[in-house]
């Protein structure tokens, strides 16, 4: 953990900000300083079948959902969420300045009792 799911409407797929959004999310998660690099997973999904707002075909959206493991205090989680939202919304601002865009982000904590892992990336990252 943490894992990120990015969904975006297909009508904005060719925009530079969308094409580079995954790397922006990764950089922000890394900058937050509380997530192990080997645990970061980012899934990026284009959504072609969607209805946004008043169903105007020019309406676009980006949604970022973060799921993190438990064990951090509320202030630490809030600071990380604030930083990630600040970086990602700043990244998307040029697109929002020229197009119809709805951007939302959420962060959820997964109780450790329900989080199972098998991950040898930590070992490999230390070796590099």
UniProtKB/TrEMBL annotation:
The transmembrane segments are none
Q: Which UniProt keywords apply?
A: Isomerase
Is Transmembrane helix given among the entry's keywords? no
- State its Enzyme Commission number(s): 5.3.3.10
SUPFAM superfamilies, from UniProt? Answer: Tautomerase/MIF
Query: Can you say what this protein is called?
Result: 5-carboxymethyl-2-hydroxymuconate Delta-isomerase
A matching Pfam family? CHMI
GO molecular function annotation: 5-carboxymethyl-2-hydroxymuconate delta-isomerase activity
Class in the EC hierarchy, top level: isomerase
Note the superkingdom of the native organism. Bacteria
Species of the source: Roseibium aggregatum
